[in-house]
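Notes from the 1:1 (GR / supervisor)

We went over the backlog. Supervisor wanted to see one worked example end to end before approving the batch request, so GR pasted a single chain during the call. The sequence is below; no edits were made to it. Supervisor asked that the structure be written out right there so they could see what the output format looks like.
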Amino acid sequence: MTYKTQYNKWMNYPNLDNDVKNELLSMDENQIKESFYMDIEFGTGGIRGLMGPGTNRMNVYTIMRSTLGFGQYILSLNGTRKIAISYDNRHNSYVFAKRAAGVLAKLGIKVYITKNLRPTPYLSFMTRHFGCDGGIMITASHNPKEYNGYKVYDKEGCQLVPDLANIVIDNISNIHDFFEIAFDESSSLIEWIDESFDQIYLDKVRTIELENIANKPLKLVYSPLHGAGGTLIPNLLSGMGYQVFPLESQMTVDPDFSNTKSSNPEEPIAYEKSLEYAKDINADLILVTDPDADRLGVMVKHKGKYQFLTGNQTASLTVHYVLSRRKAQNILPDNGYVFLTNVTTPLIKKIALGFGAQVVETLTGFKFIGEQAKKIESTGVYLFGCEESYGSLISDFVRDKDAVQAVYMLAEMATYYNQFGKTLIDALNDVYAEYGFFVEETLNLNLKGIEGKEKIEAIMSHFRRYRLSIKNKELVQIDDCLQSTRWTKVETTSLDLPKSNVIKFYYRDGSWVVFRPSGTEPKLKIYISVKGESKEDSLSIIDNYKIIINGLVSQI
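Structure output shown during the call:
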């Protein structure tokens, strides 16, 4: 079916909402094509896209179609026939969540849905706590305000891995009528979960504490960037005796993100107001969570200046703290596991092995870490999991990234090191001195629309064919996850990772580069990791990589 045929089908639907119809009428030809040339796709984080009318947009019709496909999958399991639902602060999040609940209830599925917005890890915990067959989280994570998204979970509170997601995708593809999907939002099968459930989740969060430190002198500035973290995190910290100073202008639930220039804690502009506030009150730490509170960004006051920690640095600090404190208390198990993705700093692996832990590497996407955590349940002990993009999980009573846990542990870590006159920057430098000077950076190529998608495909095809040659760096291995092959100078073997459009180039000196189209945003992500003799040496090496890669990509 052509995009124009789809557009006309929507236009001619007799019961179409007038606002939707008017928006369709206002579209130019390019907007029509972008909105209808394809059905919105599942990526590494489920469905995520721009809001608006059309098959390639987030709206109640695509939500209903996706939910019907997911509901059919849930019914096929012959399980408890229960699903948990929550949502963040974005435009239409509540509307989408309620409509999804209505579709599921019409199928005879029991639904537990939060009365108000709550974090993504909260939804993962709800799914497990109520013995559900699955869960739905309405969120676009850190994307701009024009986006929304739809993440689906299995009974373990883990996002669906590809084999299971493909079943849902097949179900969805067989639903051709967006407009005649039945729903009942007033069904008795829908149970609204109020704030009394918060205590059950937060009691579990508090169990991750490793050091009960009575004196908590540090000042902590916290911002939820107008999102779901504000519902839980300030009370959690203050209840445990921390001096937390919420940034009030960003504590309001606001889908327009009016008081921040970015909803992404990876971007420095997201910290501008938090930094101003921190300077005013002479705070020691700035903690910022993304709108659905599964990722944490950090700034540390060190020698009078505030410094960023990258996701890799925060994860490295956390895994070292968790393992070292467990070892000091004789509670570090012999069969402990640390999990990371194939674009996360190698420093995590080196630290984990240094403490005798087993290390499991997965593809990008926390669902793969959740999947592996389930596999070792009966034979090992989960210790820590992380990915480079500011996401980690300390205790796997949740099976997704959890910034509520991360904030709680960062506060404890900073307080612990402060007893010895150290900041988190001092602690990080100690880790580098012991394990090596690893530096990572991610290049983000924003490539929107149909032309952007074609450009990403061209870049990926180019490097599959011609490889990535770096002057004075010997290429020793290539992992192509799409072809499921591992090339070395000796042989080519099969690669034991799920199929995904990812290529990783390894070099003799231990550096690597990964090319990966984002599964949640219209961008190509290029990850670079190097190790030098010093921090300055590492920074010089990575600058050289960036110059070469940017030059090659610009010619494609």
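Supervisor's comment: The longest helix spans residues 535-554.
Batch request approved.
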